Amino acid sequence: MSISAPQPKPAQPGNGSRPDQDDSATAVIDQLVAANERYAEEFTDPGMDARPVRHVAIVACMDARLDLHEALGLELGDCHTIRNAGGVVTDDIIRSLTISQRALGTRSVVLIHHTGCGLLNLTEEFRHELELEVGQRPSWAVESFKDLDQDVRQSMARVRTSPFLPHRDDVRGFVFDVTTGLLREVDPA
Ligand SMILES: [Zn+2]
């Protein structure tokens, strides 16, 4: 298979510069595919089972600044990571958690929102504007919020009250500070 002009690897990976990057939208996926080829060259099959080693599922915002494995000391195979805009517990998150617990053995749930979340600036008016623009109202709620802690509590409550989840005792919620890298736990009360 041919890949358009793969760029050389940075001489010193991890020094913050990313000389292999090109902001052109048409090039980004080619860059990812090229990076994967380098990854696969080093990759050895760890022979893991699909069941997460640490029996934990993490529900978090999709935010690009949040590296869950690095931030939580997680290794490959340790956990399920389930992400969406906001890290909000929607029906689809419940679907994934149900499969995670019932089919793949997880028992604990960690919920992570973060400072500076894009959803803090949106309102349900976003749906209305979408409808006006495209002529169709989305079936989903935007799930925007004004208060991070309150939304973490709401998400914890949705997990704890879901009849589909057999393990609802070990559910904890946090706000990740994107400027310090620290998690702050949210009191569920
Ligand atoms: Zn976010």
What secondary-structure arrangement, pairings included, does this model have?
Elements: H1 25-42, E1 56-61, H2 68-72, E2 79-84, H3 91-102, E3 108-114, H4 125-134, H5 148-160, E4 171-176, E5 183-186
Parallel strand pairs: 1-2, 1-3, 3-4
Antiparallel strand pairs: 4-5
The structure holds zinc ion.
Zinc ion is lined by residues 61, 63, 86, 114, 117-119.
Enzyme class: lyase
Protein name: carbonic anhydrase
Function: Catalyzes the reversible hydration of carbon dioxide to form bicarbonate.
Give the tags.
189 residues; alpha/beta; Beta-carbonic Anhydrase, Chain A; 2 domains; 5-stranded mixed beta sheet; disordered N terminus; binds zinc ion
What does this structure look like?
The chain folds into two domains: 1-43, no CATH class; 56-186, Beta-carbonic Anhydrase, Chain A (3-Layer(aba) Sandwich). The termini are far apart. Strands 2-1-3-4-5 form a five-stranded mixed β-sheet, with helices on one face. It is built from five helices and five strands, in the order H-E-H-E-H-E-H-H-E-E. Helix content is 31%, strand content 15%. It is α/β, with parallel strands linked by helices. The protein has helices at residues 25-42, 68-72, 91-102, 125-134, 148-160; strands at residues 56-61, 79-84, 108-114, 171-176, 183-186. The protein is globular. The structure holds zinc ion. The site of zinc ion (ZN) has 7 residues, from loops. Its EC number is 4.2.1.1. Catalyzes the reversible hydration of carbon dioxide to form bicarbonate. InterPro entries: Carbonic_anhydrase, Carbonic_anhydrase_sf.
